[in-house]
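testing teh design pipeline on a random one, pls ignore if ur not involved
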């Protein structure tokens, strides 16, 4: 709150006569230590380095839930994982109560998103889910690059226009592989180069009287590690930093046979030559991104926006790169959860900033802090209790942080990812890190001050007994304050949670399904409630009744055209919508009255669908329990989904691999 009061004070004095433009630069899967000004000789990042020398390096920046979608939910909403409801890798909600681009648009900004959003793609309308962005030009790095893929985004469409019929993935690497290889086409076709040109052109042609908010989000260095050969050939194995391993605690991750498929392995000691190529390709991908960042910064200067544009650079999470035998992301360790963050304020804000250019700030910051920072720059005070983050503008105005009431430590967490061993909560203040493995109720403790590489695990070290108890108590207090319940804390003690929880109670429920939505079988979850909860007679119905959607009771399950779908409920009792069934909470068959067929599950190309088939008393696929929440379940539950005659409707399945 102190930072918002400072900003309002500045505006009241008339110091800021024109709102600053805002540029959010992002990379994906970019480790905190992968910038050349930090001493990494395998990188060439002069443009990132210039932002650090002309601004501030936030040394202890984190991604609290370090995989793509939950990290971006925190960025979008300014909330903690518990606050926005994504406790692991899943789907970003269709809408949140308070969102970054909506708030800035309402304050008079022209909002544009370029590159990776990972918000979802509306195939029927052929555009991304906007979340308040007024202009979209997207490359999410999903699908197969053709119209048949799960997402055929703006880059994919452009690629097919300039290279008809060619495969943009012809390099032969998939979206989550740890392997690396040079890009097979001319580098101008690379998505990194495409994005750089798109943002450069937009800035050079920008003539709107409104200040702009641009998010330029590069997909790389996320897999595939496919830099141009020109840069890869200059990235030498002898310049790569050494791989970090621990003092025994990480041996459990060393055997590749325990780490999934070889191509997409999330851990394991891999063949040395392949590891070197992977790491060279990853570093080269960052250098290539930096070149295209240079195009964007040059365009700002050419159009004379430089002097009035606030720039923040960060990433959604890091990358294992074989440290502690890990690949990819989703872990509590530094290589995954610790991200780069650079802030450069414009000359027009010079009088309001006391931070010296070229400084390093040691306060613990997180992606949730980006939204409140931009609100401060724009002179916006958020509604009460709508954001959990803090504005970095306060630290720029008061580098000591004394007036900011800055957090002492930060919460991190991730529900089960890859396998049961990776399900955790953590706390850190940038000096110590405490990790609670929720699967096994085990703990880890690291001294980041003396051991930034997390080599020595200290939870069993008697010299750290009181430190361990301190951090454990802090986590208990957090869970109790957030009212997480007995599945998290019992009698003041952390408890094992063998079952993961991707979505928390604060995750927004999705929109009700539309007419024509077909029925699928999906796991019960809060965000799917509008598509899973049905209005029925809990005492059963022998004579027949309709089954309508609670979220929209004008829609009923209907049997027509040899399938079950949602259709408008008839005012009369038409045969297509009449079903009989037994009492709630008891396994029962649900029978379509006029045909005598039973609602059952069947396997199809889109998963387990719900259909009618001949009744068989012994068939488990025909036995349903109508629960207290209004769901028909047999483990998974009947869910109205997107596969319907009405085209795109409710989409519970928009999830790519993390």
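output:
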């Amino acid at each position: 709150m102190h930072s918002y009061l400072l900003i309002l004070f500045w505006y009241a004095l008339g110091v800021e006569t024109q709102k600053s433009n805002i540029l959010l630069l992002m990379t994906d899967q970019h480790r905190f230590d992968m910038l050349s000004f930090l001493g990494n000789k395998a990188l060439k990042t002069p443009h990132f380095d210039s932002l650090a020398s002309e601004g501030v390096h936030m040394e202890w920046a984190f991604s609290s839930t370090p995989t793509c979608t939950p990290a971006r939910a925190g960025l979008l909403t300014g909330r903690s994982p518990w606050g926005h409801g994504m406790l692991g890798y899943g789907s970003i909600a269709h809408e949140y109560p308070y969102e970054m681009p909506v708030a800035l648009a309402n304050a008079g900004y022209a909002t544009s998103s370029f590159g990776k959003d990972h918000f979802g793609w509306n195939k029927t309308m052929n555009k991304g889910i906007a979340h308040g962005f007024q202009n979209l030009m997207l490359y999410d790095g999903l699908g197969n690059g053709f119209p048949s893929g799960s997402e055929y985004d703006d880059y994919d469409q452009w690629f097919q226009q300039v290279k008809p019929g060619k495969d943009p993935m012809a390099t032969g690497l998939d979206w989550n592989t740890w392997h690396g290889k040079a890009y097979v086409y001319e580098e101008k076709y690379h998505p990194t180069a495409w994005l750089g040109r798109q943002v450069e052109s937009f800035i050079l042609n920008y003539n709107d009287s409104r200040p702009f908010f641009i998010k330029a989000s590069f997909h790389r260095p996320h897999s595939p590690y496919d830099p141009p050969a020109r840069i890869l050939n200059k990235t030498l194995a002898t310049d790569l930093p050494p791989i970090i391993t621990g003092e025994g605690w990480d041996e459990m991750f060393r055997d590749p046979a325990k780490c999934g498929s070889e191509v997409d392995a999330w851990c394991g000691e891999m063949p040395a030559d392949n590891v070197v190529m992977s790491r060279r390709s990853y570093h080269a991908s960052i250098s290539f991104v930096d070149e295209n960042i240079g195009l964007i910064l040059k365009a700002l200067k050419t159009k004379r926006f430089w002097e009035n544009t606030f720039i923040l650079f960060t990433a959604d999470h890091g990358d294992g790169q074989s440290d502690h035998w890990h690949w990819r992301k989703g872990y509590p360790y530094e290589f995954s959860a610790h991200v780069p963050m650079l802030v450069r304020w414009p000359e027009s804000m010079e009088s309001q900033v006391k931070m010296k250019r070229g400084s390093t700030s040691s306060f613990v910051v997180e992606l949730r802090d980006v939204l409140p920072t931009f609100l401060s720059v724009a002179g916006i005070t958020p509604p009460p209790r709508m954001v959990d983050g803090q504005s970095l503008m306060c630290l720029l105005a008061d580098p000591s942080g004394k007036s900011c009431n800055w957090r002492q430590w930060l919460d991190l967490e991730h529900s089960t990812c890859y396998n049961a061993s990776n399900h955790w909560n953590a706390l850190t203040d940038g000096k110590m890190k405490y990790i609670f493995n929720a699967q096994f109720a085990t703990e880890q403790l690291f001294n980041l001050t003396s051991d930034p590489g997390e080599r020595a695990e200290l939870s069993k070290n008697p010299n750290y007994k009181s430190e361990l108890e301190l951090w454990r108590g802090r986590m208990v207090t957090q869970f109790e304050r957030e009212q997480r319940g007995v599945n998290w804390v019992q009698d003041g003690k952390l408890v094992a949670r063998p079952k993961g929880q991707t979505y928390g109670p604060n995750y927004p429920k999705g929109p009700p399904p539309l007419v024509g939505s077909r029925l699928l079988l999906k796991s019960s979850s809060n965000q799917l409630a509008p598509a899973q909860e049905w209005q029925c007679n809990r005492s059963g119905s022998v004579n027949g009744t309709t089954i309508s959607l609670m979220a929209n009771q004008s829609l009923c399950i209907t049997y027509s055209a040899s399938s079950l779908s949602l259709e408008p409920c008839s005012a009369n009792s038409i045969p297509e919508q009449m079903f009989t069934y037994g009492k709630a909470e008891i396994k029962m068959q649900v029978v379509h009255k006029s045909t005598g067929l039973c609602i059952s599950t069947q396997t199809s190309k889109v998963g387990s669908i719900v259909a009618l088939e001949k009744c068989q008393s012994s068939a488990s696929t025909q036995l349903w329990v109508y629960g207290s929440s209004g769901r028909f379940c047999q483990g998974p539950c009947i869910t109205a989904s997107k596969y319907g005659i009405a085209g795109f409707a409710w989409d519970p399945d928009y999830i790519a691999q993390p």
